[in-house]
Write the structure tokens for this entry.
Amino acid sequence: MNDALPPGLAPLDSIEQVDQGLSAAGYIANRQISTAIYMAHHLQKPILVEGPAGVGKTELAKSVASWMKLPLIRMQCYEGLDESKALYEWKYGKQLLYTQILKDKIGSVIGDSDNLSTSLTKLHAFGDIFFSKQFLEPRPLLRALEEPAGAVLLIDEIDKSDQEFEAFLLEILSDFQVTIPEIGTVGAIVPPIVLLTSNSTRDLGDALKRRCLHLHIGFPDEKLEARIIASRVPGIDERLLRQLVSFVQQLRALDLKKVPSVSETIDWAKVLVLLHTSVLSVDLVRDTLNVLLKFEADIEAAGKQIAGLTHKARADAGVPA
Amino acid sequence: MSATTASASEPLRRFLQVARGAGLRVSAAEGIDAARAVQLIGFADRTILKDSLGLILAKTPEEKAAYDEAFELYFKRDDLGAADEAEAPAGGANNQVVAGEGQGDGQGQGLGRLLEQDDRAALATEMEKAARESCIENIRFFTQKNLYARRILDKMGLRQVERDMEALRQSGTPEGLGRAQFLEGRLDQLRDSVRDFVERNLILFARGETEKFREELLKSARLSNLERRDLDRMRVLVRQMAKKLAARFAKTRRRRLRGQLDIRRTMRRNMGWGGIPFITVWKQKRIEKPRVMVLCDVSGSVAPMSQFLLMFLYALNEALSDIRAFAFAGSLIEVSDILESQPVEQAITKIMETIGFGSSNFGNSFADFEEGWMKDVTNKTTIIILGDARGNRTDPRTDIVARMSERSKRIIWLNPEYKSAWGTGDSDMYRYAPFCNMVTVCNTLRHLERAIADILEDAA
């Protein structure tokens, strides 16, 4: 059956393959994530990815695209986003320019017709040229449908858009088609893999949720996080890796305004590698804590406990005191 | 494509029911998706099954937790059943055939023998089977426990065993009596385990249902009849409802009127191009959040209602641009400050202490309002009056309400009394009604939600 699929989609036979494919693209997924991608492909349903900021929601879409060698089409949502920016727009300027240019030619089109009705008939013969595909500016959603080999469509931060826009997405999400009044219904050539991400700043509608698979990505556990860092920061010392992961995991247990997420751990790991660190020390952690924590109050709160946390992290990694 | 039309297999169907029982809202469409997923991956690998169904069925963190629990409960049970069933046919195949044909008799003998042999595994299988036949998944309330236990026992052939025991006792031989006694003991054990089994199923199938049922009940219960212990739950419900409404109406919205060109602004925008309209500007309609003044009767009979109205409105504050609250009984005071500085529950107690529980005098209170605050009423203000319109035969001062009606955008009167009581005794409802844009009965949470949704809707 794989022969029927475009080449990019071939390696989706089992959940393990998804796992391997994603990790080849540099994304270490847990089983839920791979299962979600697998199901999304086979059931042809979009995935709604929720979770705290920085756990790799957007990254997942990028990795799926690079693994499957499909174009990634990204649409960032914001308040006031409407269909002219998401779906299509008429190239109004172009239409206007063309009419201006053609104004002089109107005589040759109408020719020698002497009354209004015949000249109108002649004009009609040209059809709706000004409302054809040439004058259509496809926006992300339409582009995703028109990709000949399929695409990965990332609708980022859907919770930032208005409720009306959410309702507008329903047609695309359930049938992979959109309706353009002047042209008709445009269906997907190959149904794209759709990922929607949300930080839950507002509750999404039930209708939208019902059409999606719902994937919640939380903070990874120690083992997974270590694998993620190892893949993202190649060449990191094994021992340092264990220390910093243990430290971050402990940090997450504290009562902070914004706990560090995976992207911050990666940044921190890069910083530590740059500094040629092999063993965490209290001073070093204090100096680089602003990479992990983004609020003054958090840095202050965690600052008091650095010594204890560092000690524990070193013990976890088996570093002699 | 067979994948889409495939009916949910039996275990899946029952699991969906369990999931609904646990409070997940599983629609038919999701059921179909679940069936397709199961077809894709099969039942073999439980962890993958759990992940896949979880993706489809659970849509919030709370639902995820409920789902995990339901899944464990259900499939753990199912595993036992399946294992038993797999073993049973080897020894019990004949037995089951006989049971199928001979109805009670055959089953009765089967049960008697199983009891005597103390074959736990086979008994458990029988119990599962009987439970399935008596549709245990429809159990909803704890009061049905005995009913279902009885049904299951009957299906397992209890009658016959009892008859056999009676016969054994009648026989009078010591051996017979001994056997009867033995059976009696085993039967008691069986009864216990059946009751246990039913209880577990009740938890499995009905937990969410019972909660939902209670909530439904509370939503349509008269607020004045509520018991104290329900108040906490009511507060949660009020907040939920308010949140829902607020999400719907929270933004000051501009609605673009399609196809109506705003010529003035288009010209302005395109001046740079010599007036050739490259960029079009369309007319917009601005939708404003309502300003609300709410006058609450806090005299004895209406007080509980007022409490909930205030709670509701203050939970809604993101959908309202400005809200001012007044409380009255014999006279009227503004309570916005109290409500803003304290959590609603405490504020309400304080208000009640200050002014509540007197006998109401509507005329007097309206006069107070006119004197102190009428000047703040604008043509954008919605005035909500909550009261039973029973002024104890004092002057209703409808003239003031008439003036309020002229100045304000509209007046909405919420009356906790049923319509049949309006205008009876000292009720002045029909005297006020002509000056109100809307008069409506409002004595349950449902009514309240509807009335407030109307207010917000109208503003849109």
